[in-house]
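F.,

This is the one I mentioned.
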């Protein structure tokens, strides 16, 4: 224990081994849905789903472990939502590139990211963002993860006219989506009640309590298992066949980004190394690079702002090492065989649960490693059970808007636009872009308000939107 305290500076950060382990568990449970979702998305490219489970888990383990040991920061990393969809549906699906060649773009992106992080460019950009926008990112991500929670728990669903609507609790899908939404709502009230009473481990108890209620519903026939529509059994399934073939698939996937004979584009006759010189490949690399860059900027700021981890002047300690760890994770994920691995917005849940050092990230990483052997247990926890924790943390994060000076229109309106952009575009990077552009234009005539890097970022975002 003394070794851990010295290595992670626990006393200096006013925390303890017990607090960090608890927060690391909460962080893992909040991020663990990616172990099921990422294989579903990437398998649409023809990649083996079983092998993708191993790849996703090991990439998350390596990324989070790197963050813990290199940066001593309580942040979890895993293959990013959004970027995995871009990988599967745009680069492979629409543009027609083989998934092996798309993985090469991820590897190259990771190398470029690493070089940028060494040069301190990313660190300077994050520190150049005005404090009002940093607070807005915290609030925006809070609403964003709440929206994710409502969606994963089926509390809301798509609607052709209003875009989204509330779940029908008495329709034909009551025994699947309806009961899931109802259990999530009960879990939110349970979690809020536990937090209000300052019960130790409130968020974890809320997750386990909601899951337990779901198991009761399944055993009594209220909850129906329907794998075809994404409603799986809530009971762990310890089938030995679950482990063997997926592991062989993982071994075959490892390093597939470097298999030149499989670099191809089904829409053209170009293949092999000649694809590296194509304009489309440049566009792919820049798209991954740009989105990952600003997703990381927004996520790191949003997770840490308003917490004891942020300095009084609004800067983030050990930021350069955080960005280095993020770039290493991206490179490692591409080599293993998955889309961009980066910092997760749900890391904020662990921070709000008390995480202050890399020890929480270390324990989260160990949970990823353990999940390779206890996957039936971890994958049995459904989205509606983790939703309550996301909602409560979203509430805690939205309180950062109280630090924004609403009387300063030139600073607060861009902050509001940023918050709305994150939620309504379902993209942290685009929300940040809207906010930065608005801030730059509204404050361009006020001396000392706009850092020159904000002009550069604004022009990059404008160029991105013009090229869409």
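My design for it:
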């Amino acid at each position: 224990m003394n070794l851990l305290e010295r290595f992670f500076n626990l006393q200096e950060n006013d925390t303890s081994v017990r607090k960090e382990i608890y927060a690391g568990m909460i962080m893992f449970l909040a991020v663990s849905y990616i172990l099921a979702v990422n294989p579903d998305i990437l398998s649409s490219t023809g990649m083996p789903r079983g092998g993708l489970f191993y790849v996703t888990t090991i990439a998350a383990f390596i990324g989070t472990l790197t963050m813990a040991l290199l940066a001593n920061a309580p942040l979890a990393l895993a293959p990013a939502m959004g970027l995995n969809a871009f990988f599967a549906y745009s680069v492979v699906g629409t543009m027609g590139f083989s998934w092996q060649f798309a993985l090469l773009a991820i590897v190259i992106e990771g190398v470029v990211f690493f070089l940028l992080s060494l040069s301190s460019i990313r660190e300077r950009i994050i520190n150049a963002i005005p404090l009002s926008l940093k607070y807005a990112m915290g609030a925006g991500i809070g609403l964003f993860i709440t929206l994710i929670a409502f969606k994963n728990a089926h509390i809301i669903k798509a609607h052709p006219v209003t875009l989204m609507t509330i779940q029908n609790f008495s329709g034909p899908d009551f025994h699947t989506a309806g009961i899931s939404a109802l259990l999530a709502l009960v879990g939110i009230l349970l979690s809020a009640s536990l937090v209000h009473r300052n019960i130790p481990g409130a968020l974890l108890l809320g997750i386990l309590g909601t899951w337990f209620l779901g198991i009761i519903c399944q055993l009594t026939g209220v909850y129906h298992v329907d794998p075809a529509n994404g409603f799986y059994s809530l009971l762990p399934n310890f089938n030995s066949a679950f482990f063997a073939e997926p592991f062989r698939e993982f071994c075959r996937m490892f390093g597939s980004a470097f298999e030149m004979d499989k670099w191809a584009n089904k829409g053209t006759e170009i293949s092999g190394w000649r694809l590296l010189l194509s304009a489309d490949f440049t566009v792919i690399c820049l798209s991954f690079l740009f989105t990952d860059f600003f997703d990381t900027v927004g996520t790191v700021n949003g997770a840490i702002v308003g917490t004891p981890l942020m300095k009084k002047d609004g800067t983030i300690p050990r930021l350069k090492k955080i960005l280095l760890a993020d770039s290493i994770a991206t490179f490692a994920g591409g080599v293993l065989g998955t889309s961009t691995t980066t910092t997760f917005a749900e890391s904020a849940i662990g921070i709000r649960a008390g995480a202050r050092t890399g020890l929480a990230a270390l324990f989260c990483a160990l949970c990823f490693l353990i999940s390779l052997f206890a996957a039936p247990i971890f994958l049995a926890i459904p989205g509606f059970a983790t939703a309550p924790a996301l909602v409560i943390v979203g509430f805690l994060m939205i309180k950062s808007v109280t630090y924004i000076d609403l009387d300063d229109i030139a600073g607060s309106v861009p902050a509001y636009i940023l918050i709305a952009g994150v939620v309504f575009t379902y993209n942290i990077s685009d929300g940040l872009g809207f906010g930065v552009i608005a801030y730059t234009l509204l404050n361009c005539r006020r001396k000392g308000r706009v850092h020159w890097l904000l002009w550069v970022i604004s022009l990059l975002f404008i160029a991105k939107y013009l090229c869409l």
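The first strand starts at residue 77 and ends at 79.

Talk soon.
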